[in-house]
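User: Is it possible to get a 3D structure for a protein together with its bound compound? The compound here is manganese (II) ion. I've pasted both below.
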Amino acid sequence: MYIQPSITNWTGRIDSTNDPLSFRYHQQIRLADLSRLDKKASNTFGLLGFNCDAGVKRNQGRMGAAEAPDEIKKALARLPWHLPADTEIIDTGNIKCVEDHLEEAQTNLGNAIASLCKSKVTPIIIGGGHETFYGHYLGIRKFLGPEAQLGIINIDAHFDMRPYDQQTSSGTMFKQILDQDSKCNYLCAGIQQQGNTKALFETANQYHVKYINEEDLSLPTLDQALEQIDDFIEQQDYIILTLCTDVINSAYAPGVSAPSPFGLDPKIVRALIRHIVSKETILSFDISEVNPVLDENNKTVALAAQLLNDVLIHFHTNSN
Ligand SMILES: [Mn+2]
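Assistant: Yes, that's possible. Here is the predicted structure of the complex:
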């Protein structure tokens, strides 16, 4: 089900109505119906929400992520605009999952993402539980066709490679993808021993997943981690990035289904994101697993909005 973008998400302080140097996001954003996209200039980003936590429910997690897209848009609306003047950001509304119709919702999300790509709009997807990523993948693969080597980078405490013989969920996407797509490679940064069983580490090894442990993602070791990520990126035709917000330390990100007391410092996550989205081969980004219902003083939502702002500012800035 498609929900058109709403101006009610885009309000905030107004320092000036005519001086662009004083503008905030809510003064720059434009609303665009998905069915009426025309060809855009190449520096256009399309925000697309996914109101869905059916995958989290199936994964026996805590519900609420379906409400994140509008809350994150409201927080982004209030941030000052530091993007180049010719950058265009459009809110293209939300795709909503009805009841337990997860597969249908993921297909709809994928189709919407593919149509954004066709209009030369960079998809910036706001989940939703991490099942958002399966729709993200479907859309990019549909756009690229089957032959391109596609690198998936997931910043996450969890592999999300559980078996799905019974049903898919927010914990199965990467196994689903690697089982059906031999042209996909998977790197996961932020893995925690306590977030994954021994069996999941074995699965990851069987599927030749590249992963970087949480312990190896601190300031002193960051350069080494970035080198590993660069080696991975160089072997792909294109990359896509997904951020599972539960990878962040629960002191900073309490509003998630599965909080991580030993999660990453937000500054490390910001450094990873800046580095990865600056690459020439990146096509799209999603942020998932923010849960406004479980948040404390809106701080996870505010962090998510700031990370999104970082993605937008740093996207494609390094074409080496
Ligand atoms: Mn995840």
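The mean pLDDT is 97. Residues 2-314 form a domain with the Arginase; Chain A fold (CATH 3.40.800.10).
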